[in-house]
Design a protein that fits this description.
single chain, alpha+beta, 5-stranded antiparallel sheet, globular
Amino acid sequence: MKCKLPVFTALAMSLTSSALIGSLNASEIDRKTIITISQPVAVEDTILPAGQYVLKLQDSATQDVVKIFNSEETHLIATIVPVHAYRLRPAGKSEFSFYDSPAGEPAALRTWYYPGDPDGFEFLQPRHTAVADSNTAIAAAKTTPARPPQPTVATEPSAAGR
């Protein structure tokens, strides 16, 4: 009986760990999201020209870190430490919101939520937009500035998970 106990324990541990590993999905862990933008977008102090990008969450136990890559994931464009955001009603698709941007400035990404997740990420307002917002607030008493159109953001499911 003593010989069978270690074998049984090892077998039970391997079955348990393989069951856990099989249930993990790479796109769920790193929240990989492929986006296509139709015009420039500011993410904090990084300007992304129109094109396709990959957003991923870095595996970190201490804080959320979002990495932005080119569409092939061969070039890291930005590493950002966003603020935690929360929504009451998760949606079945990625959701993005934008700060109001002055005319002629790129739209600035405010929040990103992964499909089905109430927890998301809020990005700081870019410095150039924040300074312009304080200047336009003073001028807003006299006139209302025209708002630039919001960029179109299309998302594609990641190949790893869905």
